[in-house]
Amino acid sequence: MISLKKFFFFWLAVAAVQAKKELLKDNHSKCVLWAIQGECETNPGYMHQHCQTACLATDNHSKCLEWAQRGECDINPKYMLHHCANSCNRVRSEAEL
Known about the structure:
Blueprint: H1 4-23, H2 31-36, H3 39-42, H4 44-50, H5 52-56, H6 64-69, H7 72-75, H8 77-83, H9 85-96
């Protein structure tokens, strides 16, 4: 059985992650596209204020783009959206063009 103390710390961790997600947001529908095009580095003043989520998306594996192009973002979203967020966002943005 889980102790009350462990449950409390788990709840705090979940609340902190949710609060961070609510604070970070993209204020424009083209944020992901701009981030892919390098605007987070070229125009950091605007992008880091208005496209926070898109600029924080990263890939943690060298095969992320290959996997995303094969549809793994939809097949295995739990892994891909955590470890390959940049590639998933890129493939989805390219599909919308």
